[in-house]
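Quick one:
INPUT:
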């Protein structure tokens, strides 16, 4: 028996795709407007994952200039062929579909190889005769389907025109195609229903990679569209992987709601076992619901489980370059001149950019995903803003239109800490806790499912509550349908800089039930 918890990668890690080399599994997820792009994970048991890098780390690979919230990189697929790794993906704002490759999973990836086929959610498939097929969504006059062409894997050139493969089982937005060859059948697995509460995974098969494809008689093979809201919701976007023992698993994403029809920490990566019927169709988790606590009737993995501890500080991980640890991101393409790293003291200096957090641009910001409802995050800030509009602090950031900011700023000539809440076209500022000049400021945010609370102190004073904000107003459903989740971030605005040190992020004891 194997016991584990879903999600296996909590927080905003959607659209998972997985491949295997021997005993090693590699997984990627979407990253949208955040840089570097496409987080890359490694595991030996499919349950415990360690981030080992990002696929796209250079602007030559990833142009995010001016992309809207939830633009940028959509739905990567990772595959390995002849010991070479490939990741295909869509840059929704700049160029469309492309793939990159590497011969060293721990090294640098190539610059993009563009494929002219339109649509989104691209995937690669190698047939036994050596032909390489490229799948993505296919736009029809008033509908959408899955399309495919044959490509030259060296250049990305389309060798055939795009042909329609399958319209799906009838759900809206058929997307996220993945093709597999198993026992003489070509399987085409897709997502349908939109990445919403009607999300689902469906599958079809054919004796040819070009079709025609016959849908599974019991589609969808995975969905929670008719479940109560205390269960995971919006399950979909699956990928299949066979373990060395021949057993099949599916990775997919889903959401955890905080209250009726609301979620704010994003779509999260989950996993479930797959069995095959005598007729050759996959059954996910024996047709049962996907649960937070899973017990699977399978033999334990041969390799010891890798228990991964979440980093709780800012982390400078490279001996060659001074960089943030892998869980951290910038917004869009950053200006490296704004960031100075002090390795010895594990701190970072951030200088204000030409824009602030309210702009659809590249503000002076570094952040890591919020991965738990019940959490605490804190940092010490050393700065002395002198002018109105200069501020630095701690933010709970979802989009440039939806964020809560606990900031050190200047008001009426005094150094103060305020809580700025920006929601859509509304902004409020409250708190105004006076801080002595030259004094370091201790900023803290705590949360449960429904409420963020913001605290401030100094080396001479205890933490004092400044204010609070509802998670509801940072939820996807209160915005123009985002695909991302909340970040805990550090930021600076205006023509000044701030030093940030002793950052911590931690899961706290559960108190969400107090607000049910």
């Amino acid at each position: 028996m194997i016991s584990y918890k879903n999600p296996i990668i909590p927080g905003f890690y959607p659209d998972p795709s997985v491949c295997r080399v021997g005993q090693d599994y590699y997984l990627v997820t979407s990253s949208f407007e955040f840089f570097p792009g496409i987080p890359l994970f490694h595991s030996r048991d499919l349950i415990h994952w360690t981030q080992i890098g990002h696929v796209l780390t250079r602007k030559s690979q990833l142009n995010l200039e001016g992309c809207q919230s939830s633009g940028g990189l959509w739905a990567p697929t990772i595959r390995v062929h002849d010991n070479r790794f490939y990741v295909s993906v869509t840059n929704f704002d700049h160029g469309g579909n492309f793939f990159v490759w590497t011969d060293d999973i721990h090294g640098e990836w190539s610059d993009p190889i563009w494929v002219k086929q339109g649509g989104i959610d691209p995937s690669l498939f190698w047939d036994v005769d050596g032909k390489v097929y490229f799948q993505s969504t296919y736009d029809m006059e008033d509908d959408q389907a899955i399309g495919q062409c044959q490509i030259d894997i060296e250049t990305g050139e389309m060798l055939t025109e795009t042909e329609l493969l399958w319209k799906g089982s009838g759900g809206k937005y058929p997307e996220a195609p993945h093709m597999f060859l198993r026992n003489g059948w070509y399987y085409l697995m897709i997502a349908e229903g939109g990445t919403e509460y009607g999300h689902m995974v469906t599958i079809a098969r054919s004796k040819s990679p070009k079709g025609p494809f016959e849908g599974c008689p019991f589609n969808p093979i995975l969905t929670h569209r008719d479940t109560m809201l205390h269960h995971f919701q919006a399950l979909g976007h699956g990928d299949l992987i066979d373990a060395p023992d021949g057993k099949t698993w599916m990775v997919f994403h889903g959401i955890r709601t905080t209250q009726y029809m609301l979620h704010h920490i994003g779509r999260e990566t989950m996993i479930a076992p797959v069995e095959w019927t005598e007729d050759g169709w996959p059954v996910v988790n024996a047709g049962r619901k996907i649960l937070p606590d899973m017990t699977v009737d399978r033999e334990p993995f041969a390799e010891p489980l890798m228990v991964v501890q979440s980093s709780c500080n800012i982390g400078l991980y490279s001996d060659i370059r001074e960089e943030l640890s892998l869980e951290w991101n910038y917004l869009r393409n950053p200006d490296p001149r704004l960031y100075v790293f002090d390795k010895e003291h594990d701190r970072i200096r951030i200088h204000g950019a030409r824009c602030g957090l309210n702009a659809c641009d590249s503000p002076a910001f570094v952040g890591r995903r919020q991965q738990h409802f019940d959490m605490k995050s804190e940092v010490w800030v050393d700065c002395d803003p002198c002018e109105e509009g200069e501020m630095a602090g701690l933010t709970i950031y979802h989009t440039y239109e939806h964020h809560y900011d606990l900031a050190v700023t200047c008001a009426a000539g005094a150094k103060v800490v305020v809580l700025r809440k920006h929601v859509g076209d509304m902004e409020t500022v409250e708190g105004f806790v006076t801080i002595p000049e030259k004094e370091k400021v201790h900023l803290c945010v705590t949360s449960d499912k429904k409420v963020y609370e913001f605290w401030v102190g100094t080396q001479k004073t205890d933490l004092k509550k400044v204010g609070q904000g509802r998670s509801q107003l940072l939820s996807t459903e209160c915005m123009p349908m985002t695909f991302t989740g909340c970040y805990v971030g550090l930021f600076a605005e205006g023509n000044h800089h701030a030093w940030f040190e002793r950052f911590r992020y931690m899961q706290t004891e559960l108190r969400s039930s107090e607000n049910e």
